[in-house]
């Protein structure tokens, strides 16, 4: 049933969502802002992206976050990259893994995309008060898949 | 010393390279083909991409392969994607992890890039005689990082 | 119910699908070819792309085909462009509308993408035995939305 | 004569240009701002884009606007997307048709490009005081091709 | 007058066109092939691209060829890259300048685009019987701007 | 030795770097800002991009700047375009050559990328107090390769 997909998607989405800080970019805030012109967008994100795709077996939440970040660095869509560096941290990627993944892309996208992505990462790390050195702290407040 | 970077890069590259089948796409074959017009390309791939970047700490070989594949699916550069689905398999990603990573990108790149990438994956899996079902077999012949 | 989305998607997809010629590229053939490595892809195309998105109100089938073709010309994903020039013809776009849409993109994508897209269009028109001049003939065998 | 192309282009451009509100993004404002470093840019937009391409037969103004918007959503060039959501409204596309076209692209570009484009659409709709619900109002002040 | 733009464009185009070998990709062959579905395309290439843009002052023919090749490597549109490596050679770029320009892009586009572009360059050099070493030979048969 | 590559890269980089104005975007400022999250990025830019690639023979500094700018206009990565319009001016490209190169790309990328790039160029020219008309002034303060 469709309702099941929505609930499954919402449950999955919450594994990637930090709710303790209102300033952090989340899917729910983005959906809310588009509610008046595109009310179904939030539904598709939850039902299709999280209910159908993220809920599939075969990859961990951290692997999915890594794949997502790598694609967004390559595309250069920065607002979404900010969102998914956040979801990645919440899903259990360490700041170091995120920075290493972006750095790893230099031979594949060149420096410009990587430099812009690192600037976004720096901003997100600052907002979440994590750093390469303080990685341990972050680990504790992230939501690890059980 | 520069020589050290080359040796380190070559060692690292071999962790991603299957040498038992001459039909499989490898960096070494690509470099050889470009030897007469761009003799330094192979050196940069080994020294910079593998010696400097792939040799960094913080990600496993499988994570690096996942990041690489995700970027190439997004870019749509198919000859390189064929190469790196091969390096991913050799580095220890299972066929299922590769297919799941490509499938995961539907919400981020749309269906066209994903369908074209899956067609490339199907071709590579066929050449390497692996499949989603026969994943166990492949695991044995891949080079796992120690 | 999920079953309803699948049936709705399949019905909608058939409005864009020419079944009388086995050589024409269709979603169903693409899904079949990927069946062994990614069996859910066909389901997502039918349920999400056609059941959820194409089934929305507010645009005609021809408008949706126009939007799709414009995006694929811009992306340069040629196998998908071939598929959707076919779906566009079946949905009732005339060959002239398709050529004009591609030509219209010169100021937005430059000549290279447009020239490559016109080459794909020429191939599809030839396979379907339609042309700018024979547009009337094509109109009769296309599936117009009621 | 070249003069004819310019006049034809300017006439065509005005079918897409709202002149009653100085805050709305228009081609003329963009050309003016670049006048000192690239004085011919405005001429090329008017003569080539509008005089040669937009003046061709075979598509309505609304279809051309739809094709343009679809390409710009796919490219992610947001300042130009803002401009052409404006030209689309002026050419007679309803806010709903614009939102539906952007939403339709989810399966072809993924969510990131679509979400960013909807954010631009929301801004433009707000500046022009139109909405999905108030579509009727907008229809009246738009310039319909005769 | 429009006729003047066409003649000016055609004259300029011929400075970039090798007519002594029928196997070499040229704008005229591409236009001919699209004549039946898009008869105006050739006119726009000659009048706008070559008559308006290439005929501007401020850059040499070689600089324009360099700019064109750099954009096409970045876009990955290979048929057009093949065409413009040809126009670049005819305009007086040496094979070495072309290979160096492509190689220079590694830090800006990454290796994949560069490797694919070098493969195209190798094919063109072979068809025109030039090489990095035989650059002197090529210089003699190229059309240098006076 | 690696040290040699760093020194060679730094020397080469300084040929493209204006140090007399702290407001101008430079590689060194970008590296500094990313120092805390990605301390090796600056090293790779200097050693690989400038030490290995920019230090190659076969192209002048101005040609390398032209190639770089053309790729960045095509990619649409604006912060990097701002940086490299600056490095281009410092390497000896005139404002007119830069504007002409961007304008030349209209037939290859379409107007949107070109218009956005010209807006960046206008900003850089203003910050450096140069203009198309005042090109002579700029020439004197730029660093010409000997």
TrEMBL record, chains A, B, C, D, E, F:
<feature type="domain" description="Carboxymuconolactone decarboxylase-like">
    <location>
        <begin position="39"/>
        <end position="122"/>
    </location>
</feature>
<protein>
    <submittedName>
        <fullName>Carboxymuconolactone decarboxylase family protein</fullName>
    </submittedName>
</protein>
<dbReference type="InterPro" id="IPR052512">
    <property type="entry name" value="4CMD/NDH-1_regulator"/>
</dbReference>
<dbReference type="InterPro" id="IPR003779">
    <property type="entry name" value="CMD-like"/>
</dbReference>
<dbReference type="InterPro" id="IPR029032">
    <property type="entry name" value="AhpD-like"/>
</dbReference>
<dbReference type="Pfam" id="PF02627">
    <property type="entry name" value="CMD"/>
</dbReference>
């Amino acid at each position: 049933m469709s309702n099941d997909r929505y609930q499954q998607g919402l449950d999955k989405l919450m594994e990637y969502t930090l709710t303790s800080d209102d300033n952090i970019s989340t899917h729910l805030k983005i959906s809310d802002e588009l509610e008046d012109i595109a009310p179904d967008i939030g539904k598709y994100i939850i039902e299709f992206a999280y209910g159908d795709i993220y809920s599939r077996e075969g990859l961990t939440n951290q692997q999915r976050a890594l794949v997502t970040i790598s694609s967004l660095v390559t595309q250069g869509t920065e607002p979404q990259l900010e969102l998914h560096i956040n979801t990645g941290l919440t899903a259990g990627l360490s700041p170091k893994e995120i920075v290493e993944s972006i750095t790893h892309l230099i031979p594949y996208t060149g420096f410009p995309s990587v430099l812009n992505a690192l600037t976004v990462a720096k901003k997100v790390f600052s907002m979440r008060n994590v750093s390469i050195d303080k990685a341990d702290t972050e680990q504790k407040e992230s939501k690890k898949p059980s």
